[in-house]
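Dear colleague,

Following up on Tuesday's group meeting, I ran the structure prediction for the two-component complex that the binding team flagged. I've pasted the input sequences exactly as they went in, so you can double-check that nothing got truncated or mislabelled along the way. The structure tokens for the whole assembly follow below. Feel free to forward this to whoever is handling the docking comparison.

Inputs:
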Amino acid sequence: MEVVQGGAPVNVAQRRMTLSHLRDREEWLGPLMIGPAILYILLVVGFAFFLAIYYSFSDMTLGSRSLGFVGFKNFAAIIGNTNFRTALWNTFVFAVGSQVLVLVLANTLALALLKDFRGKWFFRLLILLPWVAPISLGTIGWLWILDSTYSVFNWTLQALRILDPKARLIWLGVPHLAMGSIITVHVWRLLPLATVIILAGLSSIPKDIHDAAQMDGASFWRHYFQITIPLLLPVSMVALLFGLVFAFTDMTVIYVLTRGGPYDTTQVLASLAFFTGVVGGDTAEGAAISLFLFPLLLAVAIAFLRIARRAEVT
Amino acid sequence: MGPVAKVRYWLADRAHFGIVLAFTIFTAFPFYWMVITTFKRNSDLINRDNNPFILNEPPTLEHLRVLFNDTLYGVWLWNTAFVGVLVVGITLILAVPAGYALARLSGRWGERLGIGIFLTYLVPPTLLFIPLFRVVVGLGLQDSLWSLVVVYPSFTVPFSTWLLMGFFKAIPRDLEDAAMMDGYSRLGAFAKIVMPISIAGILTVVIFSFTLVMQEFVYALTFISPASKYTVSVGVPTFLVHGDVYFWGSLMAGCFIASVPVAVLYNFFVDRFVAGFTVGAVK
């Protein structure tokens, strides 16, 4: 005979209604269904992260099997290294520069896409392409566009008589031009994501808020800055946080376009970690370099949690 | 509408279209460039007096022939599909039950755990690739596609779980409650009632995971060295670019073929991804 909490026998109909026998079983069903995913994430991401910290305090190289504990020696060596400081600075220039541009452009584009017009789906597809195409392949398209001999930009500038026919801009070979090119490619790559996120935010603003502002005779700019922007703040934050994570930690664009050159002027933390830890074989130092990305990620994670909590409350 | 208002309306309309067009040219130009380069003859490509925006000589299929016959491009596509299918399978096995349990079988801690899982999506390959490279070597999986099959779910599972959690939450509880009153167990209701109406959500996860696999670059570059084991996103930039001669025509063809079909497919699901990306900041 089935028994409920109180110990009193119940009839079949009542037992079906309360569903308590199922709820009892769900106490283990839930963890059983979540368990494998969590276990896998802990095993791969958690373990690798632990190893990254462990290696950064060791003297491990690609060839060696020894694991000597060297304390903060790697970190001290890195901070003393000018290459590292250049890379750290470049990372900030590159990530902050590209994200400021992305936010401004994405807000403009999202506003333009809010309106309905003929063929909108097709334009949206073309605008999304850079985000969906494999980043390394899209970047090769740019490598050809920015080619030192056959750059279409140079051709156009010469055709418009802006650039002397004999002169050539070496887009990826001159320090500031190279950084500018890399920021452009990154803006190109991350603009679609930020745009669709902000567009989702724009579409979710209730129509009566806009109607009310219109009734009160607010001008376009006043309306935009005093009503739309404040309402878009949380969702713009989300777009910015994603953009920062992708920009701070990316090495693909730089690997394909410049490999950190010319003279390390486009080297960033992620690419420096790759060239030190994998190509150079210095596992310990490479791990220590990439760990410098962690405080940033932590800050982003905290910001996300705050946004999510606010969304939960309201 | 008076004539002045009409002109103003027309001007605003043109300005709006101009803005959209300018952005579209910025985003789509590299893909146009890939297509036109694919069909240009080499003599046309290297003649700097020619207008580069158009075909100055009759189109050619030579670059496509070289790409598929003389390079490993076909093998790379196959490798990508192999890894993609396996990773999508693993992702579904792990993320579908986890997403459902987070949506239904856990109370307050479910939301927190969901956000915790989501945040691991933000842990970038560039933070983990060095230790994971050692692990892969330790397991004897270096230079094998299986190294990617084992590691890739680490970025597909978190986001997929998060997407599915939101998706399952949107399904009315009453459906399962009714099924369970009819004698289904919780698992039975999940399999027979919830799964069939969740096909759209599951398809979203399939597309999303597959595109992530196609895009991944850092792990594949680190774990694998023989050219015949590359995926397409690593094979094209490392093997086709770094010869002495750049085969721009074949290179651009390779980029275009691997980018655009998936992008068109992705486009159908983009609103669902955005719902996941906005983390509840949009209601």
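The two ends of chain A are 46 Å apart (CA to CA).

Cheers,
M.
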